[in-house]
Amino acid sequence: NKYKQEVRLVLLLSPLNTTNQILSVSSTTPTSKNWYLLYASGDFVKVHSVNTEETLGLLCGHADLVTGIQLNPHNHMQVYSSSLDGTIKLWDFMDGIPIKYYCWFQTDFFLWSDTFQLVSVKLTKGAGQDLEGKELSVVLDGVGASSKQIAFGREDSYVVSVKDVDLQVYFFKRKLLNRFSLSTAKTKGGDNRFSCVVCHPTEDCIATGHADGKIRLWRNFHHKKGYTYSSLHWHHDTVMDLAYSLEGTRLLSGGVESVLVQWHNESSCQKDFLPRLGSPIECISMSSDGVLCCTLHTDNRISIINSNLRFSRSIQGLIKSRDVKTGLVVDPRTKALVLNGEPGHLQFYSLQSDQQLFSLDIVQRQYIHQAGLKQSDLVKVAFSARGTWLATVEESEEVADPELQLKLWFYTEETQSFALNTRINTPHDNHITDMCFRDMDELGDDSLILVTTGRDCVFKVWVMVGDSDPEGNVSWSCDFVGSYHNYQATNCCFSEDGSLLAVSFEETVTVWDSLTWDLKCTFCHPPGNIRNICFGRQTCSKYLIGATDYGFLCCWNLLTCALEWNAHLNVVVLQPDPLSEHIAAVSWLSKESSLFVFKPSEPWPVYIQRNLCKEKILLAAFVPRDEPETISSEKYLWLRKSQLFFLTDTQELMTLSTKSLEERLTPSSKQLAVEESLPVTPFSVLLGKHRRQQAQEDTDLGKPVVHNKQEQASPAVKELLHTPAHVLPSASFLCTIFINSLLISKENKSAEEVADEVEMESEKAEDDSDEEDVTAMEQEDTSHIELLGEITCKLSKSQEKELRKIRKMDYSWISAF
Predict the structure, then answer these.
(1) Per-residue pLDDT averaged across 798-817, rounded?
(2) What is the pTM of this model?
């Protein structure tokens, strides 16, 4: 509010802490034509460089979903972020440093309200970081649930809110509220409900988007009866968002047509189009200099567009598919998550960069967006052990007589992609239920085996065969067909060494020899069909685990062919860790998901997490770490080599963190040393390995490991080194903290120091009694020295005491300089 000359934020409050704004976009031009894109993703705010196409950093500190971000109007190097955790944070986004924390959440303020409210919060000034926003006042009540339904007018003199068919304009200086309503009748296909609103930057003009695709331009709204509006119409469906250019001469609009429309001078005759953006547009944002704009799409993608309406580049996140039928699969080569992406495509999603690596077109057919049309889609995916072979299954949406195709893809180093090797039409007579490779290193062609199971009551074994052409190409063919009492085959998996194959047929689990394909044994635990099966690994490789749809988790011993133990647990996901003996089981009970991690050889779980999330977890996957993580907490030791990821029914990707909530919310400037904040380079990795190897050699040789005082620097020193100069407090304030951090605390003494002090005290007590012995020892030492022909100066008893004291003093504090 400029009229009060104070910093205030206007926030959208919900009594249920819910919001339909998944991701908000903001852009800025700090210096010398370097563009930075800021966008909220979960409980983070990500800073992306438009010029270099790199993610520069994460603004970490919120404990819940980030609902909005806004640049500081007085300093474009700073950004505000709001979250469902009830806080507002001010960041220096270039350095990733939090400057201020504002806690404004007050339950009593809107305890009895059942609608969304627009609230003004005064940002108090103070010396510390943690501040409390005490002054809250309601600006508008009963506003829309989305931030796109709220806009500020010219010079922030008024705020506009739209909801249903009502438009509200509140003038801050006059404290006047004007309401305007449109007709609720839907005539001639028209729908007057508001969808979004934006205000002209230099004129008193309001642009509103509507559900029927119209754009209305409102003027003279200072008077309740003298207002006017004109209409622009091109969109055939809801206008999802609007944005004005910096001068206000151009108006951008987007919707479900995946077309960005640019209106010139608010005229319906002058407009330009940028078509084929890939998916419906949800949000539009302009850069602060008007050179770039960016659009957010429903497939979790941001498109960056130049001012001349030319596409520049895009940032693709995890695509939300209609239904993830492939499950969560890990690519052994890139350690990327592989799952359904665009219709008929397979997306490779990098967990490290939080971006899509590439998308592989499997179906290779044009997808037609038409309701009720039966089309082919990707349903199953499997990788070989080294990731050189990829098997996919695609089928049509027909229930009675589906069209099936099994495709085998080979990875080529020349193209750095997968090429189609074999296409098998109708591999089964009914839907394919599961598929897996024999999990062995591909030392020879005969070791590669692919098994598919289907509702046609059989499982099939596919092997590679050599062709007769001179190039030596190979193809795949069926080698064996197995069945069991005409039951439907539902699941399959190989043991760790590949010698055994387990196939579930409804209520029965069968175990087969992978060399001769002889049936070895069967297991059954009625009632209920087998939902998931997996073999134990490493020291637990003799166990077979199965979960039934009647709520039982069973463990069978392959050596005794008997049931080892069972538990009453409604397991929906059963996922073994490929690098350890642990198995993760996710249950769904009383509308909450719980996690149980166990070893098949032990009767009790090693980790239990009740109420992991309110959403139902459908899929899970263990992703191997590049290097084993150092974990201090014993209950998270099972996550040392791999990280566990979940996918919920709302298609949210989650993972378990080994750090506590305080550690995750603590800014990186207070956690990391200077070396750890530097980018990872081959030299830094090599240097780190050399240091660890040298320390290990010193330990093996029995040398005392001397820890540098700088490696154990206090948080005050670390913060001093990390905090930028323009946000540091005065030097007089830091001087005391810095000097105190250099002093050595004697409160917690090591065992060696305590032993030294005890020894010195005993020496003082026994000085008189040991005087004669010391004299005799000195005479004996002198006689030996004279025999060797050496002449030394004899020290007195008091000098030797002083020498012993000096030897036992701690000079390690000098290393800090």
Answers:
(1) 70
(2) 0.71
Residue 785 has pLDDT above 60, yes or no: no
Average pLDDT over residues 702-713: 46
Which token pair is 752? 């060696």
Instruction: Go through the chain and tell me how many residues it has.
Output: 817
Residue 515 and residue 497: Cα distance in Å, rounded?
Answer: 12
Angstrom CA distances, 666 to 515, 715, 719, 729, 734, stand at 55, 12, 12, 19, 20
Residues facing residue 262 across a β-bridge: 252, 272
CA 279/CA 263 separation, integer angstroms: 21
* Separation CA 452–CA 435 (nearest Å): 4
Name the more confident of 791 and 268: 268
Residue pair 422/407 in contact by the 8 Å Cβ criterion: yes
Contacts 24+ apart (CB under 8 A), 100-103: 100/129, 100/131, 101/61, 101/129, 101/130, 101/131, 102/131, 102/132, 102/133, 103/130, 103/131, 103/132, 103/133
pLDDT at residue 13 tops 80: no
Letter for the amino acid at 462?
A: W
> What CA–CA distance (Å, rounded) separates 256 from 47?
27
Place of tokens 């077109």: 361
Q: Which residues contact 618 (CB under 8 A, 6 or more apart)?
A: 324, 572, 573, 647, 648, 649
- pLDDT > 70 fraction of the chain, expressed in percent and rounded: 76
Give the list of residues 6+ apart from residue 276 with CB closer than 8 angstroms, or none: 258, 259
Q: What is the pLDDT of residue 371?
A: 64
DSSP letter (8 states) at residue 679: P
Among 349, 327, 345, 317, CA closest to 336: 349
617 touches 623 (CB < 8 A): no
